[in-house]
Amino acid sequence: RNEADNWFLRELRGRYDMVLQYLARHPGCTNADIEATMVELSGPGEVRQVGGYLKVLSERYRMIERRLPIFSPARARSGRYYIRDNFLRAWLSALQRPASAVAFRPIDVLIDQADKRLADVEGYALEDLAGQLYEERSRLGIGDFALSERIRGYWDRSDVEIDLVAVNEDEQRIRFGTCKRNPDRLIGTADALKKSADRFLAVHPKFKGWTREYVAIAPDIGADARAALQERDVLPQSLVDLTAGL
């Protein structure tokens, strides 16, 4: 704990630390979100500096990244910011505060707080892990989906949210995925995933004639949940499934 805190105090003082703390607790936030928070904390003069803070954290330290929806141009204004390293994200959002309170709070209370916050962190990390596993399986020529390009998510201003979009140009297949840390939540998101896919296809008519597939991903999926998803024409995939053969 002391080593992590000392590193931040030495290298990332003041506003940089504030930006990192905000990104850790609000993964996927926009430039406007960050600006609004800086104004609230430090006044309107800070808005002009936000771009500089983000550039330093991204280009100099490579601690954050700006992601775009799949098929978006590089200059699209729909970018979202994330901390690149899962450990750093977990430390800042879930562990730093409980660890700093060990001298004056009950340990079991702090552990419970950290566990609850880590559940949120792990949910976002699962999306990254699932995408990486899809890419690795495609690279090795195993699994049931060969990728034509890097797998990414999709979102827009009309509140469409799709965790993963995978494209197989050769076979004209497109797969839409939802990721949940809690497998019990997968069934309830199946219909929403299909509706979001419909809205995606309305904006990208190129894919309307392609084979459309749906996948629901969780660390572990029980037999009942698998059967329920398959009844809805959604492919269930656990991390055990995605790591098989690697």
TrEMBL record:
Pfam family, one: DUF234
A molecular function (GO) term: ATP binding
Organism of this sequence: Candidatus Accumulibacter meliphilus
PANTHER family named among the record's database cross-references: ATPASE
Keyword ATP-binding carried by entry: yes
Keywords: ATP-binding, Nucleotide-binding
Every DUF234 domain range: 91-180
Protein name (record): ATP-binding protein
Superkingdom, taxonomy of origin: Bacteria
Keyword Transit peptide belongs to the record: no
Annotated InterPro entries: DUF234
